[in-house]
Amino acid sequence: PGVPRINKRGPAFPLDGYEFNVPEGHALFKHYLKVVPSSYQAGNGPLQSAYEFSTTHHHHVFRPGSRLAQPALYFMYDFHPIKIVHKFRRTPFLHFLVKLACLVEHPRHHE
After folding, report:
1. Which of 37, 53, 55, 109 could be stapled to 83 by a disulfide with Cβ–Cβ 3.0 to 4.6 Å?
2. pLDDT digits over 14-39, tens only?
3. What single-letter DSSP state applies at residue 104?
4. Which residues, 6 or more positions from 71, have their beta carbon under 8 angstroms from its beta carbon?
């Protein structure tokens, strides 16, 4: 199992499909990952635990034959202590009608 990011379209994985290739020489890759614990609840369904994360990456390609060229791969993690809870709920249609009636009945007056 991976680390899903929850949104209205479902889980997304920021690193899916990324390829890091070096045609010649050596390279240094650094990946920075920020991880936030989160939960997702749709309507009155069960609370599902997950993690949200964002990524940033930097790389440096060394020239072939360079004496300083050492291939390397680093992953830096930043774990956040705060949990985010996403609750997706629909407002009942009756509440929408009451709010609409209040807007129509009591417009703002500037005197």
Report:
1. 37
2. 667 777 777 777 888 898 988 888 88
3. H
4. 26, 27, 28
